[in-house]
């Protein structure tokens, strides 16, 4: 070997060694990647390529090193004998790399189709789940609506039956009561106030009037007269009822709060009947709170459903859960005997239904109760909501 060929010799030797080092370094990294994600086709392909390139690097580098050693030591003939085998091994390694590349090219195409099908299946599965949830929600909503309708139909049938019975009884009792009351008041004219007979007659008059009140309630309940609707200011009607309640309460400890919505349109309904409903609900709230508590009246409109909501909340004890489903039944009352006929809420329920609305009660014992009247906004007033 001449001095001028020394750099070429050194570069060839160093390059051969570095080629082996770099190929095994690549093999180590790709094995680590393949170990972390064994299902990844790219890592598998690169692992096989690195195996073959490492083999090629060993074959090629070992050949070059052996060549330089033999040439330097003067064994040119030995190298000439080995040379064809070394070239054949290198060529074989490159053919194997090309074959692996072609094989994984085809496998990659199939893999992409499988991944695409997998994504389509997952998308379809999610859509099926969403459709199933939507279907379940609609079935649940329809079932609840059907249950409410059946309950309302049963309530209407019950009210109709009791109304017919009450109407007959009330007519039969009302006339004799009128006669008794008339004769009692005639006799009172001839008696001296303060006498025993006068006091007895006053007691008779008081109880006959009480009986007539019950009979009149029965007649109101039985008569399903068509509402005489007109445009009314619902806030003015509520204020009139509140003035009446304040006058009856006669207590400084009963607080009445108002929270009126600003966009309530004129309501098209029977003022007297709505007035009657509000008096019934507020008198019940006042009875629940006693002489110390708070009654809160709230109004608001919801243009999306064309409804106006009137809520009356009290701070009384509330209603037991077992009684909530019965409070609109005729003659059902939780008041002591002699303080209620059990017709107020039943009459109110019928009035609101005749106006195309609804009335609901919510309560948690110990935290008061809230009654919500839901009234439709007539088409003539919807544009004002």
Automatic annotation (TrEMBL):
Keywords: ATP-binding, Kinase, Membrane, Nucleotide-binding, Phosphoprotein, Transferase, Transmembrane, Transmembrane helix, Two-component regulatory system. It is an enzyme of class 2 (transferase). The keyword ATP-binding applies. Pfam families: HATPase_c, HisKA. GO terms for molecular function: ATP binding; phosphorelay sensor kinase activity. Residues 168-379 form the Histidine kinase domain. Its EC number is 2.7.13.3. The chain crosses the membrane at residues 6-27, 39-58, 89-108. SMART domains: HATPase_c, HisKA. It catalyses: ATP + protein L-histidine = ADP + protein N-phospho-L-histidine. This is histidine kinase. It comes from Desulfonema ishimotonii. The lineage of its organism: Bacteria, Pseudomonadati, Thermodesulfobacteriota, Desulfobacteria, Desulfobacterales.
């Amino acid at each position: 070997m001449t001095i001028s060929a020394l750099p070429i010799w050194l570069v060839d030797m160093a390059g051969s060694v570095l080629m082996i080092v770099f190929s095994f370094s690549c093999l180590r990294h790709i094995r680590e990647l393949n170990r972390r994600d064994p299902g990844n086709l790219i890592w598998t392909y690169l692992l096989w390529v690195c195996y073959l390139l490492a083999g090629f690097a060993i074959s090629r580098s070992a050949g070059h090193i052996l060549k330089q050693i033999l040439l330097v030591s003067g064994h040119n003939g030995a190298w000439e004998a080995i040379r064809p085998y070394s070239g054949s091994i290198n060529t074989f390694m490159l053919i194997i790399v090309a074959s692996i590349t072609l094989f994984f090219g085809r496998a990659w195409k199939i893999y992409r189709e499988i991944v695409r099908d997998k994504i389509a299946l997952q998308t379809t599965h999610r859509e099926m789940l969403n459709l199933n949830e939507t279907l379940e929600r609609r079935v649940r909503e329809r079932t609840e609506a059907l249950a409410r309708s059946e309950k309302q139909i049963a309530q209407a049938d019950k009210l109709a039956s009791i109304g017919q019975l009450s109407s007959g009884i009330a007519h039969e009792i009302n006339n004799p009561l009128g006669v008794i009351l008339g004769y009692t008041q005639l006799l009172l004219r001839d008696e001296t106030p303060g006498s025993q007979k006068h006091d007895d007659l006053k007691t008779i008059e008081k109880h006959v009037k009480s009986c007539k009140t019950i009979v009149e309630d029965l007649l109101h309940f039985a008569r399903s007269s068509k509402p005489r609707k007109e445009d009314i200011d619902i806030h003015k009607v509520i204020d009139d009822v509140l003035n009446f309640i304040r006058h009856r309460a006669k207590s400084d400890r009963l607080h009445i709060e108002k929270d009126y919505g600003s966009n309530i349109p004129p309501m098209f309904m029977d003022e007297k009947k709505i007035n009657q409903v509000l008096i019934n609900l507020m008198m019940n709230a006042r009875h629940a709170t006693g002489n110390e508590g708070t009654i809160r009246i709230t109004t608001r409109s919801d243009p999306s459903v064309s409804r106006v909501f009137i809520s009356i909340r009290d701070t009384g004890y509330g209603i037991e859960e077992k009684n909530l489903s019965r409070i609109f039944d005729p003659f059902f009352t939780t008041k002591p005997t002699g303080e209620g006929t059990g017709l107020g809420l039943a009459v109110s329920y019928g009035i609101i239904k005749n106006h195309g609305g609804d009335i609901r009660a919510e309560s948690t014992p110990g935290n008061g109760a809230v009654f919500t009247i839901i009234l439709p906004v007539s088409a003539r007033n919807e544009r004002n909501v």
